[in-house]
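Q: For a teaching handout, I want to show students what a protein-ligand complex looks like in token form. Below are the inputs, and the small molecule is iron/sulfur cluster. Please produce the holo structure.
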Amino acid sequence: MSKLVEVKDLKVHFGVRQSLMKELFTKEKKKVKAVDGINFSIDRGEIVSLVGESGSGKTTTGKAILQLIEEQEGDILFDGKDDFKKNKKQLKAFRQQAQMIFQDPYQSLNPKYMIYDIVAEPLVVNGLVKPEKERKAKVVEALEWAGLRPAEEYLYRYPHELSGGQKQRVAIASALILNPKFIVADEPVSMLDVSVRADILKLMVKLRDEMDLSYLFITHDLSLAWLISDRIAIMYLGKIVEIGDAESVVKSPSHPYSQALINVMPSLRSKRSERKILKGELPDASDMPKGCRFHPRCPIAEEKCKHEIPPLKEVADGQYAACHFAEKKEETDDKAAVGSH
Ligand code: SF4
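A: Here is the structure, written as tokens, with iron/sulfur cluster included.
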């Protein structure tokens, strides 16, 4: 498979206000390093999940890939190119190929518009498909791709007349109408009833298979990531701390944070990971811990962890972890487990 999206040394650092006195004396603004030098790629037809707690930088990463954040630094390549940065025309073309689905379909759909207008809006905004008859045919097709059949029954209804699952399908239809290659799906099922979550995830996978879509799937729920992803990247305070194929990250995690996330998921927990308990809250992102950012919460932290930043290193074929004590996996997983030091 070839790479569709490449993220290289992506940083998003926001300035935040301090007290006026402090700003006058220090003459510098405090920075929140929402995303702090991350690297990963997404192949054509691949689903990569970004998993982490709220505040870890997942959504900011998704928006930065779509060029929606002013403060971003680093390189984003799409189909091997970054010419969308050079002018508005190229950026518009890029945005037609790269779409976003938001967490809350109750908020993302304008309650004053009929479903027809909501789904047709990307065509109108981009000046595409002007004849009404063709536009309607496109809307019908997109609604049917999203599983709303017969589409004609939905066209002239309003969002409040639909269930949460149906609303999210409308949001998916609106993202699909421009025939994108890539979708950032930001917690797309977290606001939905448990009973419809699986249906939306199945639809996403079906669309990937039939339309050769690639996804960045953003979630705090590792069990959902495992269901849908080819690869999983675990984020903590703006950094990727582990990345690898979904099976390896879930069944044989190398980073204590990944192990702790698995630990709170009874369906994923293994006997070996039961001893890793996540303590405390996510630290303030404007006052990052020195060394390994995870050290104040890490059950196996040592003195070195307070001073030295652990680099991402390969622990198995295609699996990387940023922990001083993550070992290369060889004959058995037990030997490779973090904590065996
Ligand atoms: Fe824990 Fe140290 Fe590894 Fe960080 S580097 S995850 S603090 S053991």
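A: Two things your students might notice: The longest strand covers residues 3-16. Residues 332-341 have pLDDT under 50 and may be disordered.
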